Amino acid sequence: MSCVSVPKILMPKDGIDLKKWAVVACDQYTSQKEYWAETDHIVGDAPSTLRLTLPEVYLEDADVADRIANINETMKQYLSDGTLTELPAGFILTERYSGGTSPRRGLVAAIDLECYEYTAGSRSLVRPTEKTVVERIPPRLAVRKNASIEVPHIMLLIDDPNRTVIEPMFEKTDALQKVYDTDLMQNGGHINGWFIPEGELTDHLIAEMEKLNDRKTFNEKYRLTKDLPLLPFAVGDGNHSMATAKAYWEDVKKTLTPEERENHPARYALCEIVNIHDESLLIEPIHRVMFHVDPEDLLHAAVNFYSKNGSQCIFSDEKAAADPENHTVRYCFGGKTGTMTVIRPKWGIPLGTLQAFLDDYLEQHSEAKIDYIHGEDVVSKLGNEAGNMGFFLPDIEKNDLFRGVIIDGVLPRKTFSMGEAHEKRYYMESKMIVK
């Protein structure tokens, strides 16, 4: 079965100010109410996705139930008064400039939620890259429960190093209808979109995505020695939005006949599909600092832990070269630096190897704490303070993200960062989820 479906996308009618319509994903700026207050000021009384979504900065406020009720009423209003109009079935090819040297290029399509599972150990064709925190689903489900449309910010990744799917479509934009071309508020850059009607081109795109699932190609790409579950799609951003759509569909599905389940709109989630090899996607590792530890004791514990897991752990004062067969991580403490190498690791990527040990150590040492750090300079500063130890993660190869999910199930929490807050997806398209 194909996981990709051709949706009927809702877009604001002609004449709507798209700069006021499009706002950034609701899970950004979660500690900065001033950002959302300024967004509200910019929007004013104009139609906007701000009125269709609940910024998570407000999730704990006393008036959250009233906010959700207003969102649901606004959805109905925008549908009834023509603010939102439904396009014929098709995809949208999108190009987003947000300040880097290259635009992010994607394809807005629908994904069958029957292909997606977020539970640990999932073998589904669409999987999260990181662990889903199920406690984060209920407040999002409350927004969706009485909603008539979805306005998602999900980014779904494909691993297409030869750029066979999305990139060639940009040679055809002259023949496509442009459906948006607008600046984005609050330092969001600029976005363009072209409509691809259902037909020859959508069939071609789906076929090219299915080719990424060829078993021989898949095993060679990820250096697999046995047939592990195929993974054509990994959720890069908006995993909890995707998980909420799945939870909602599972509730709706219980009320439907088998025939009704086949094409119910809640079965499909709108996503932007992006090639992980897109030049705009800068994937940076997130480093670790351990606090309230004895570094020498921690290194000794690492040797024992990896030995119990069928690996060998050795240390060196030298900076070791990257090794696809073994996993190396640099560390610092007390003004010293070194390299930890794990030979014959059972985990898919170096961070998985390190985090498995750190989690085990934290379980056995209640006084120890961990923090997740973006800059190497900060790791050096904190890691060299007394009672601390810093770990520098190597740069992440883009297809190693998929390899980590394929081998380990999901990546450890805080594995990587993918863009700054203002670069995250802005709401533009929407889709019906009720009949």
Give an overview in words.
- The protein has twelve helices and 20 strands.
- The chain has 435 residues and is α+β, with helices and mostly antiparallel strands.
- The chain folds into two domains: 4-282 and 419-432, no CATH class; 287-392, Double Stranded RNA Binding Domain, CATH 3.30.160.
- The strands form four sheets. Strands 1, 2, 3, 4, 5, 7, 8, 9, 10 and 11 form a ten-stranded mixed beta sheet that branches. Strands 14-16-15-18-13-17 form a six-stranded antiparallel beta sheet, with helices on both faces. A two-stranded antiparallel ribbon has the order 6-20.
- The chain is globular.
- This is DUF1015 domain-containing protein.
Short key terms for the protein model shown above:
435 residues, Double Stranded RNA Binding Domain, 2 domains
Cα shape: globular
Q: Unreliable stretches, pLDDT < 50, 5 or more residues?
A: none
The first-to-last residue Cα distance is 24 Å
Number of strands: 20
Specify the structural class: alpha+beta
**Helix percentage range:** 25-40%
| Chain-averaged pLDDT | 93
The tally of helices reads 12
Number of domains: 2
Largest sheet: 10 strands, mixed
Indicate the radius of gyration in whole angstroms.
Answer: 23 Å
Sheet-strand content, in percent, reads 25-35%
What multimeric state do the chains show?
single chain
